[in-house]
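Lecture 7, part B: from sequences to assemblies.

Below are the input chains for today's worked example.
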Amino acid sequence: MSSAYLLRRFLLAIPSLLGISVVLFCVLAMAPGDPFEELTLNPNIPPEVRLALRASLGLDDPVYLRYFHWLFAMLKGDWGFSFVSRIDVDRLILQRVPTTVAVIGTSQVLAILVAVPIGVLAAARPYSLFDQIANTMAFIGFSLPTFFTGLLLILFFSIQLDWLPMVYQSTLRETGWAWWWVQIKQSIMPVMVLGLFQGASLVRYVRSSVLDVIKLDYVVTARSKGIGQRKVLIRHVVRNALIPVVTLVALQMPIVFGGAIVTEQIFRVPGIGSLLITSILANDTPVVMGVTFVFACLVVLFNLIADILYGWLDPRISFR
Amino acid sequence: MAGSTPASLSAEAPASASRATKPVTPAAEAWRRFRKHKLAVASLFILGALVFLVLAGPWLWAVPINEIDFTAKLKPPSGEHPFGTDDLGQDVLARIIYGGRISLAVGLAAMVVAVLVGVVIGALAGMSSGRVDAVLMWITDLFLSLPQLPLLLLVIYLFRDALKSAFGPEGGVFILIVLVIGGLRWMPVARLVRAQFLSLREKEFVEAARALGASRVRLVVMHILPNAMGPVIVAGTIDVAAAIIAESTLSFLGLGFPPDIPTWGRVLFDAKDYLDIAPHWAIFPGMMIFLTVLSINFIGDGLRDALDPRRVV
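Predicted structure of the full complex, as structure tokens:
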């Protein structure tokens, strides 16, 4: 992979980040309501003071100037101050990001571990009983909304069986191995909910991608050379079939983040998703904006990673 | 060989040539192919039953949705209340029937918005090559990489109060949710339509129409668009399911419809704190969402077999 390819991918990420920031800013700028509404109602503040205050904050500037002002503040890391938590927004978000990334990361690994073998086996024998069962299960899997699976798992594993804790705790008293045990126990359900939902849609992609490859001439050649079915599948088919799946995993990221918000809310996982919901309910605008921007950045970041991985897995791409 | 893999599990074997004795209309042909998908046909019946229940429900089950009865609160299903009661003693079945109308209406309306926007943008991009096409597709890609649920929540958070005061609590939230869900889901349709247009506009029948002096608008509306509708119908069907899930998610997070409008997601939101003592309250609305979404997804799969000209059988 050439460094020119890498550089081009990085440069292509910048316009999409800028575009997302424009969309976010437009939403904010078009929103009704005035941050100085309270001041107009306050008789102790003369209108001249209010107008001076507006001018000093740049609220009377033309829209494009306000956009650049806002953009540079975001780039400098000046994301504002949380009304509710009384700390800087960037610090508040940074505290929460690792939990979200950990939950999403583990669930993606789970999804891939479930989806790849099932998808490959289903495609190896298309229209067999296994294929039909796998396909039906996949349909059921991605038709079950995450909030309902979450509630069903709580109902079954926490209330009926009392095996797993209902609520995720960030401050555990245990240390060493006991800490890991409790941590794993409380992470099982959130990770399962997200991972199985993701896995269900991945199964179909893996299956159709393997089906596309399995009929190609080079596979027939490999088979006629006398290489066993298992070896053909793993060495020749899967390696090529999984390349487009990498892109699909990245394209699914916006949906995964949506699922993460719901899951974090159900299990009270202290990530940025639950932070978003609590700040919306508490009217904490700076935090809402910050979290949305972080989600957007994460999506662009994952797309970038997928592009780079794609170029590395399939060198033909990086020469185009 | 590479192209002989059927697009979906249920796609049938190539039809034999001897069958073509009398002409069949495209609709009859599509229905014949759709019927081969057993799960899709079953789903059509299930969805039909659900829609009938939701539309005719108030006459079949004439229990008011807001009759509060504290002596019968959180009761499990019984003859008097087939789906049990909630924490105020309100009948869950009646509330689910009422909420289903809203959930299905939101799904359909959001789909219409998404398909309209998608068709217009896709047609514009497909007919105009060069810079307009590039810009429109860049915008489409940009929207595809937006984090949808956070943005949905942000827009609803910022605009909810203004629309509520303009159109009333129910109408305002309905319009907002439909526009936002539809406005964030048009991108796949736009891409499909553009791809169809790019290939269709070079076809001979379009060339012939152009030679006969048909205007650009007439070319698009009469000749290209009808031939591009197959994949759009499939995508639209699946959009209904996605919009129902999106609305339920919003309501489930407590940011959708107000509490006196019991959409399925809203009932789940109210029920989730009583899972240990009244699981029926959460299970019934959840099952309704699941059944609706599952049957719509299967119907979409059947329609893909029936309508998608990219089928490689």
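Note for the exam: Chain A touches chain B through 60 residues (CB under 8 Å). Keep this in mind when comparing with the next example.
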